[in-house]
Design brief:
Rossmann fold; about 40% helix; about 25% strand; 5-stranded mixed beta sheet; 2 domains; BirA Bifunctional Protein, domain 2; alpha+beta; 7-stranded mixed beta sheet
Length: about 525
């Protein structure tokens, strides 16, 4: 476990050192679970959002995007069920006085069982070498099967208890599993209680007649309340989708794991409106499409898995998570939910307005069903960043730290380096930058020996370095160096733009989703 923690610590410190993420208002000792994205982080985040938006909105004729306000009429949250049901089960340790999410304590316990399975796989793989069949081992090894059965039965029981709101059984489960407080090591627990996660605020000039509002805990409701506005103005025919990227706020009591769980975060959501009765077919289709999008970034198929929900939300008839292997284990990255007609039906009831679609083929009105895909921008950022950070042993015995970001997402696409700060080389480098900056984010770097500059750009995640040297003066060629392979080639200055475009162009990457 220490190794994983060590890797995660390196991820957090690298994010700070190379201008990606820092604690919010750090000079005042920061705010817990609130972070700022600095210069490279803001670019990476923007590129992730653009990659999603293009795949979701631009590539689909029947999906449009909106940008709804963060503040919404308070009845919205009554209708959506958030006022009554948006709770986390919390438990306190009497000795450390620390508060935990009860379900997360149990899930972390299960993660330890899963880590034991991984250990068994590693041992067997060493033992059997080339002839090792992982799938067969996982389905036949008695010890592994025992661990799997144990993990599944714990999660099933947790799901059942939470669904039935049997908080007493959740506490019993924690006690039976002998789960100890990570801080004090004690097993002295309070009862489990529900805690509402919404942030309250007020709207109005004076305290007496101010309206109580909430900061939105999700972006989806902004889509549902605008369903008719968008459908009518866009003359959209079912099936169609409405997508949105926006901030959401949750008063997480146990926010932790860096930007994985924050109080202010950003979501990329798409609600797909369909004919009732077709939801399972569309649910399966969106599971496939979303997994293809993730895999297009080349971060390793083995790092993703689907995890079907044992406990379904009050509005869902099917739900799964795409989980990613973060430095702290497999955790939810994206949710895909079949939400039925719960949301539109509920807003109809609370608003007294019809939220229905007239189907010309059936010649009738109905409340559409919805399949949702919802991914956290910050979690996606963490998945990309942590997966890309590598420490490599080189042939000459030295090591290098390299951030192998998918080139399409990298904040800076190229660094242009004059070999020396004289002989007209900086002027040529600036000329190259003036040409490239119309199409790409590029930087100029002249400080230190060229080898050190390469290392700095590797660590910052820049896919290309373009070096201007004395040969450039003779034949107008430069050296282009590839971050991932460290390969270097001479190319004409006139070919630099096209060479970079071939590697970083969104078309090349998104083609993989077809």
């Amino acid at each position: 476990m220490a190794n994983q923690e060590d890797i995660f610590r390196k991820v957090i410190s690298h994010a700070k050192e190379y201008g990606y993420v820092v604690q919010s208002s750090e000079i005042y000792d920061g705010l817990s679970a609130v972070y700022d994205y600095t210069q490279n982080g803001a670019e990476l985040k923007k590129n992730i959002k653009e990659y999603w938006w293009k795949a979701m909105v631009q590539m689909h004729e029947n999906i449009v995007g909106i940008d709804a306000a963060i503040f919404m009429h308070p009845t919205t949250w009554k209708a959506s069920g958030h006022v009554d049901a948006f709770n986390d089960p919390l438990i306190d340790n009497k000795d450390s006085k620390k508060r935990y999410r009860a379900d997360v304590l149990v899930e972390d316990h299960v993660a330890k069982i899963e880590a034991k399975i991984d250990k068994e796989v590693q041992k067997a793989s060493k033992r059997f070498g080339e002839s090792f069949d992982k799938t067969q081992f996982l389905t036949t090894n008695p010890r592994v099967l025992g661990y799997q059965e144990k993990a599944q039965s714990i999660l099933k029981r947790l799901g059942r208890s939470l669904e039935a709101e049997d908080l007493e059984d959740v506490k019993n489960l924690i006690e039976e599993l002998e789960i100890a407080c990570p801080v004090s090591g004690s097993k002295n627990w309070t009862d489990v209680k529900q805690f509402n996660l919404m942030f309250g605020t007020k709207l109005g000039a004076s305290a007496e007649n101010a309206t109580d509002l909430y900061l939105r805990p999700e972006t989806a409701q902004g889509i549902f309340v605008n369903f008719l506005n968008v459908q009518k103005s866009g003359r959209l025919k079912i099936p169609f989708g409405i997508a949105q990227i926006g901030k959401a706020f949750r008063n997480e009591i146990v926010a932790r794991q860096f930007i994985f769980r924050m109080r202010e975060f950003e979501q990329m959501e798409m609600q797909f409106f369909i004919k009732p009765g077709t939801q399972i077919e569309w649910y399966e289709k969106w599971k496939e499409l979303r997994m293809k999008w993730h895999l297009s970034l080349g971060m390793g198929e083995e790092n993703y898995r689907f995890h079907d929900h044992e406990k379904l939300a009050h509005y869902a008839d099917a739900a799964t998570d795409i989980e990613f292997k973060f430095p702290f284990g497999f955790k939810e990255l994206e949710g895909i939910h079949s939400r039925t007609d719960f949301d539109l039906g509920s807003h109809e009831k609370y608003s007294g307005k019809k939220l229905q679609y007239f189907d010309p083929e059936l010649n009738q009105n109905y409340v559409p069903y919805v399949v949702e895909t919802s991914i956290g921008v910050d979690r996606m950022f963490l998945a990309v960043f942590s997966n890309s950070l590598k420490e490599e042993e080189l042939e000459n015995g030295t090591t290098r730290i390299v951030l192998k970001l998918p080139a399409v997402l990298a904040p800076t696409k190229a660094a242009v380096l004059p070999l020396v700060k004289k002989d007209g080389l900086p002027e040529i480098a600036h000329k190259i930058i003036d040409d490239l900056k119309w199409d790409f984010n590029v930087v100029y770097d002249e400080k230190d020996a060229v080898g050190r500059r390469y290392r700095r750009q590797d660590a910052a995640g820049t896919p290309f370095c373009i070096t201007v040297d004395h040969q450039t003066l003779e034949d107008e060629t430069v050296t282009i160096r590839y971050r991932d392979t460290m390969e270097q080639k001479r190319i004409a200055i006139g070919a630099v733009n096209e060479t970079i475009a071939d590697e970083v162009g969104i078309r090349k990457w998104l083609k993989k989703t077809e």
